[in-house]
Amino acid sequence: MQIFLAPRSNETSYKNFLSTIENGLDFTIVEPYLNEEGKKILGKYEKLFAWGNKETKKSSWDKMKEGDLILFYKGREGEEREGKLVYAGRLLFKQHSKELGLSLWPPKPNEEPWTCVFFLKDLQPVYVPLSDIADFGGYSRGFVVQGFMPLNEEGTKKIIEQFGSIDNFLKHYSSREIDIEGDLEETSKISEENAHREAQMLLLKMGSVLGYETYSPDRSPVAYSEPLSKYISISELPRRFIGNEIIDFVKKIDVLWFEDEVPKYAFEVENSTGLRSGFQRLIQLQPLGTKLYVVAKDGDFQIYQQILNVDPYYKHKDNFRFCSYKKLEKFFIEVDRSEALKKAFLK
Question: Which of 64, 82, 189, 311 is 20–30 Å from 114 (CA)?
């Protein structure tokens, strides 16, 4: 039995991770592209969990056998000292197929498809510091997972010697109380800062894809290894409809989508302590008919409702929307996937 390490830190791999690992997919989506063995094995499952590699990693993919363990790597964030392995699953089935890969993850223009597809079972969240993996494998402390790769034989041997079995290894690293329902739902101070930037990035990208001009006061932060400024099309707020009396409020709103200089959608990304100030900024745009969104964790919905049921927000409650981080991530996947399919069809 072998252990494989799979990176999922950049934007594309993270989006794919949400789409086909965390959310899963129906058998009917992949059935037309499966060989007979795949149909027989995967047809027993109501929900499937898939991942894939490009041709450059086929040599590592070829080494995988049923039951092998795959650990998903997430890079260092904010003030964290190191990256970590955050999800684990066992190999159920694999198939080399361009058509199957395209059905799961339509690539961007001029991007290679994921042809080395594999399906997983027994998925579970874990938290394995990368330094622990480096110690098991005898790697340097500067080791990072830069591409899909097998843990060396020494590393697998040491893990089994120390824990007795792979199951015990997983139990050890699953015992810590963590929340891996979605990156944006993590709750530490560092994670809140990361979640805020990442949510802004998703909103800016969606606005661009949907044809809106985009604005954010935060131009310098980086999310998914890209600066937010790359997806901000308006550097100064249009003044034709936004009066001087509200400009100081509006220019602090996290993300705005404009059409013909009219703010059509406004988004405040908040945690529980910042919801009220977010409401105060958003309400300024109510006379313009702007759709007003509060983006926050699911657990903050009750606080959102409490604030919304108090004047001056209550009489304009039909203009407000609550969007959880999880819902935002799913919507982004659908928007991005639709854009990729449209480009592929029209090219």
Answer: 82
